């Protein structure tokens, strides 16, 4: 495949949202190639595992540069953002250091009993409704948003207030730029009011910690504070919900593996790593970066100012790194997947996502046994044009 193949547009359309599109394998064979985004911007697609890791780790590829109004980007919401997601050092280093203590493996492990308590309570309602109950409404959606709200100190009852805003913000074709802008302003307004309320009545949530860092130590700007809250509510909620759904769908298609895990729950953490590698929950959408100087990647010269889009989904199916990469092997021992990124932007909440996925699978296996979708795969209605691919509903039977 030439580096600038005619008519290559991204995101690709695969045979099914849980399966990678065939273009990934072709691109891994030939290396980086130019593609056109829905907004007409041109990007270099990076699909090989080693190349994706190299781009993630190379400071010559800037995330901050995509916040410029005319920069090539996939998600319009990144325009003008000051979130941790699109900062470069030294700003990224400063902000990440402020919040990193809340996301250590040790601290997040202390949350595991609370996550299990929440999941069990939600499973009670799922079981009470009986076969046909919607996994998304009862567990996949409310669990991660409740956990992130408790971590931040956001009233969990407000999740219905900002759920629609965050869904709109993750759109690349499902909503107009005007609708996305209105959603951003609404969420920022909500967070601004919440911050002021917490100044009057502080608690032990992460937002209160950051408010003190802003007000008492001058370590954080108001824009950075609000952007961090916005990022956590968006990424900490939707990404995990989508991963839960994909994990359940991929497991349910393999009833023998469901039974094996039910009999051996100690193997769930290994299985979760493989489910993360195999997942297509991100829909191929990743963080765009801008080259700040000429850089060679995968035998191709990326010019200064060019945009690159490293594909996590494609990298995690690289046959040169993963034996039988297209097979789901829940016992896979060597699993250097990049589901949570790599380098300085490695997902801050990676271990929290792992804990939630492990707890959800343990709960479903314990409470439901042999679960499976209550509808044929072709009858599931999927959300389209948004950063995380999942069905609108997922009724289960068991």
TrEMBL record:
Location of the region described as Disordered in the Swiss-Prot/TrEMBL record = 1-20
**GO MF term (any one):** monooxygenase activity
Q: Name one Pfam family in it.
A: p450
- Enumerate the SUPFAM superfamilies for this protein: Cytochrome P450
**Which keywords annotate this record?**
Heme, Iron, Metal-binding, Monooxygenase, Oxidoreductase
PROSITE patterns registered for this protein in UniProt? CYTOCHROME_P450
**Family in the record:** Belongs to the cytochrome P450 family.
Put simply, this protein is called Cytochrome P450
Organism taxonomic ancestry: Bacteria, Bacillati, Actinomycetota, Actinomycetes, Pseudonocardiales
